[in-house]
Every structure is written in structure tokens, then in C-alpha cells.
Write a structure and sequence with these properties.
This protein has 245 residues and is of the alpha+beta class. It has two domains: 104 residues; 114 residues, Immunoglobulin-like, CATH 2.60.40. The protein has five helices and eight strands, in the order H-H-H-E-E-E-E-H-E-E-E-E-H. Strands 3, 4, 5, 7 and 8 form a five-stranded antiparallel β-sheet that branches. Helix 1 packs parallel to helix 3 and helix 2 runs antiparallel to helix 3. It is flat, with a radius of gyration of 25 Å. The termini are far apart.
């Protein structure tokens, strides 16, 4: 009589899943911090050194590819963690939020990379002015920290000069009202002038009246060169305070 060998199965479980989660979150934060540092460095030097901008584009491209690869790997590990019964729902939801934030940062970096590439190798065509980005964030005092970037598109071998005006439209004590940026920000001198080859930032802090409910941010860019068309755009305040434009 033959004795059948006893078959055994190894059950592999993931121990201390919350520790895995913490490691993933820390790793993503390190990647995003390094990318953001490179981006801020690029903003400071791109307007003055086109060769440095070229190197920055290559650096951003490499970091972007690395970040995307890490997100793919983290997604794979997240799926594995979800299959493990030892991880709780809250930890899984936290990991998903972290991944969503990381993917959002990657998308933002793609936009910034495209912008810097346009500086290094601008497209042929007529020169134009564009409102590149707007950042608006409420601080602890209730005031709003703002940053508006205006850039030149097409051929940027010459300086673009002119003025920019910013106003906030909304309701004040139930009545329509318009506030000029220079009236609510000490960082603005009228007229707001610009002069750049690549881009220029306007930033500071604005304090709105307590009874004022902002609805729209209105920006007018008027180049002094007749060959460049003026820009007149409006942005919903709720969109800007939810993450910028």
C-alpha cells in the first residue's frame, strides 16, 4: 500500500500593513518635495538663463518619469494591500487619497514641463501674451495670498512690456461691487507694469472687506507693443480658491 505524500500549502500574509502604508506615504512625499524644489528653482532662473532652463527641462523630464514609475509601483502594492484582510478600510482610503494627490502633482508637473520647454524652444509664430497660472490661497488671517504669472508665447527673442490690471468682482452688503487689487493689497503699485522675455510673476497678499463676497477675478494685460494683442480674462473665484488655474 502506497502512502501519499502529505501536501502542504504556504500562506503568505503581509504583516504590519500600516507600516507598509506609512512607508509608501513618506516615499511619495519625498518624491513630490524634490520635484517641487526643482520647479521653484526653475521659476527663479528660467527668466534669466536660457541654458539653465534647458538643463532644468531635462531634469524635470527625468524626475517626472521616475515619479510616474513609482506611482505605478505604488498602485500595484496598494492593490496587494487591499487584498489583505489585515488592513483596515481607513488605511486603504488614506493610501488612495495619497495616490490621487501624487497623480495630481504629476499632472501639474507635466504642465510646468511643457511651459519650460516652450521657453527653451519657443514655437514659431506671432508673439502673444498669456496668463500662464493663477494661485490663490486663503491664509490663517482670512487674507488671500496670490500669485499671477504672465508669459510670452511664440517668438520670445524680444522683451514684452506693458501694464496689467486686476480687479475682484462680487457682492458687498448685497450690492454688486468691484475692488481693484491696489485697493486691497499693499504689495501693488499702480500702474502695475511688466517687462520680460519669458515670464513675470505678480504676487502678494490681498485683504477683502468682511462684507464682500468675491465672485470673479478679472485680469487685463495691455502690451505697449501694438503687434501683441491685449488679454482680457475672467476667472471664477470658487475655482481659484479650490486649487488655482
Amino acid at each position: 500500500m502506497k502512502v501519499k505524500p502529505i501536501q502542504t500549502r504556504k500562506i503568505i500574509t503581509i504583516q504590519r500593513p500600516l507600516l507598509w502604508l506609512l512607508n509608501f506615504v513618506v516615499f511619495i512625499c519625498i518624491i513630490l518635495s524634490s520635484l517641487w524644489g526643482a520647479f521653484e528653482y526653475g521659476r527663479n532662473v528660467a527668466g534669466y538663463d536660457s541654458a539653465g532652463a534647458d538643463a532644468l527641462v531635462e531634469q524635470l523630464r527625468a524626475q517626472l518619469e521616475e515619479s510616474q514609475a513609482e506611482i505605478v509601483e505604488t498602485n500595484r502594492r496598494a492593490t496587494m494591500l487591499e487584498r489583505n484582510s489585515q488592513i483596515d478600510d481607513d488605511a486603504s482610503a488614506q493610501l488612495k487619497r495619497t495616490l490621487a494627490e501624487a497623480q495630481s502633482e504629476v499632472q501639474e508637473l507635466k504642465k510646468e514641463l511643457s511651459f519650460y520647454k516652450s521657453i527653451v524652444a519657443p514655437e514659431e509664430g506671432n508673439r502673444s501674451i498669456a496668463i500662464q497660472t493663477i494661485q490663490l490661497k486663503q491664509n490663517d488671517t482670512g487674507s488671500y495670498e496670490y500669485k499671477i504669472m504672465v508669459s510670452q508665447r511664440g517668438r520670445n527673442d524680444q522683451f514684452a512690456r506693458g501694464t496689467i490690471s486686476v480687479s475682484i468682482e462680487g457682492m458687498n452688503a448685497g450690492k454688486p461691487a468691484t475692488l481693484q487689487l491696489e485697493d486691497v493689497s499693499k504689495d501693488v503699485k499702480k500702474p502695475m507694469k511688466f517687462g520680460f522675455k519669458y515670464f513675470q510673476n505678480f504676487e502678494g497678499v490681498m485683504t477683502l472687506p468682511d462684507a464682500f463676497q468675491a465672485d470673479t477675478l478679472h485680469i487685463k494685460v495691455e502690451p505697449s507693443t501694438g503687434k501683441i494683442k491685449a488679454v482680457d480674462e475672467q476667472f471664477a473665484w470658487s475655482d481659484l480658491t479650490a486649487g488655482g488655474a
